[in-house]
Protein: Tripartite motif containing 46b
Amino acid sequence: TCPPLMKSMERELHCPVCKEIVKQPIVLPCQHSVCLMCASEVLVANGYPPPELPPEPYSPASTPNTRSPRQARRPMPKAEQRPIDRVLRAGYGTYPGRRRKEAPPLVMMFPCIPCGRDVELGEKGLADCLRNLSLERIVERYRHTVSLGSVAVMCQFCKPPQALEATKGCTDCRASFCNECFKLYHPWGTPRAQHEHIQPTLNFRPKVLTCPEHDQEKLQFYCRSCQRLLCPLCKLRRIHAGHKILPVTQAYQALKVGVQDSDVWTSVAAREQLAQSVRDLTAALAERHASLTQALEAARQKRSEALAAQVAERRSLMEHAGLMAFTQELLKEQDAPCFVQAARQTHNRLNKSIENLQCFALAADPSFRHFQLDVSKELKLLTELHFIHAPLAPVIDTQRTLAYDQLFLCWRLPQDSVPAWHFSVEYRRRGVVPGGGSRGGIRGGLAAARWGWQRLDEVNGTSAVIDRLEMDSVYVLRVRGCNKAGYGEYSEEVYLHTPPAPVLNFYLDSRWGLHADRLVVSKEQRCARSVPGLSLLQAADHALTSCHLTSDLLVGDVAITQGRHYWACSVEPGSYLVKVGVGLESKLQEWFHLPQDMASPRYDPDSGHDSGAEDALDSIPPFCFLTMGMGKIYLPHPSSPAGLTYPLPPRLGVCLDFEKGRVTFYDAHSLRPLWEGHVDCSGPVCPAFCFIGGGALQLQELVANLVNYLLS
Structure:
């Protein structure tokens, strides 16, 4: 490479923090590189514990014994100096081989300057960041090509002031030698003579990258979905199940070809492509011009032939003028028999001639007025001809995007965006603080290990389904479009919270004493509606005197006997009163055989929380319901005997922990807990719904069923 080109790339070698040429660079999760020392200082400035770092490579602490081997005997140089990656594995505030057990580690957030945002490092901090050996090699070549005014590398085994300039460096000894010292410490015929020697340097690198989590394991694989290097042990993890994993040699060839192709694509190539496009347009216009000219010539020839035929026919008609003269002479005949004999034939010929003259018309239009071209639309397209652009950032449809048994992401392109050939969906899991809240702030909270971005490539359409998710976790999702111009901008990130327990899929059971005159269950048994018919009118008439209303109970077709389960439903805002919850199967069966009247729609004696008297009992209630209606939801509160009311959420989530006998109600859209109650789990427990007055309820469909419905 020529020196001017090397000089021009100096800006690419600068650290974004110190603005100097990088030294011991590490790769952040966002793929930007920064000096190890700079990264440590930034983390300390943000309140994190200082990491244990190796000494500066040019400092006295890193220099071997300086006694000259020519003056006295001295120990051989150690091949096992502390490498940077070994130190990084130790983490922050710990020693190699020891792990702190007092408290879970913090997930560190690094403020990346080029990204303009905080980058999640994970619980190990810089230990998860690999060393950028490629950048180090480029910096090394740059320093040897462009004079930076730096001092020469001196032999580390000569005693000053007789120290000589180093001529060789040993990657195994991790030291620089002059010729005499190199021969002394690498005797011929010994294993040290096989050491690899390089140019003298002050910054020795490991020969190969090793896994930061599995000591001495080489990074032999590349995960395209996570965009991370893997060792054989990391490859076996469940997080990479179903991902496209390539041998690192294959990924090396593919990426190198891509980089070379990108490097070739200069402005000269762009101009050539522009000229070729113009030539293609010119050739297409010339071809179209030739075809239209040929069509016009064919039409002219056809009309000429038709007009020539008619001219000949006209001339033949003009020959009938002799017949008219003959007729005039025949009219002068005085002999009647002779006239009659000649006139009959002449009369027939004359009538036929007159008929032909009256029917004659031009069969071909000699005008070519309709052979005109309207090129206004094409001229407008040509004037608007521009270079192609990548698609604009998609807009995520938050109303249709949801997390249930799977993640369903739906988006659209802005109206002024160019079309996209396909989309790339990226997602990652964020740590969740114990108790349900998501991590916030620059330092984060107590969380699980870091998850990198995972990707779904070449997604056709404007929706995607993501499965194999962790429960009770927050996922960050984003999407971008791609066309011939490349990838466009990312959409705004959207955060989805997965359910706290496995999703329970069930149907409404219509076999339990369903009152068909008051309750209507859909054919799919996923929706129920309370019809305000004659029975409700009669109940309303009784309410004027006895203050009683009719209630109807509906249960799910499953009985829960163990584990934790979650399901969701939506209640029509115009419903009068609807109760959603769970109950003992045996008690629910008893309820079906009892009179279906109760004293108040708000204070149900069978409810798990609506009755204040039940709170004073030691026994656990057999039912636990949450009441909603008229666009509101009623939440019991210990400080308010009458409870509190809030706006009705679009979807209500229910989570049953059978072993603990606990029921938690959520706003299913945000997974925000609304209220928690207890229920007797001494027997099978069923999802239950109670209607008081008119109302409607819809069970949440599984994501797969929802996608099939949208596609149909």
Q: What stands out?
A: The CA atoms of residues 133 and 205 lie 7 Å apart. The first helix runs from residue 3 to 8.
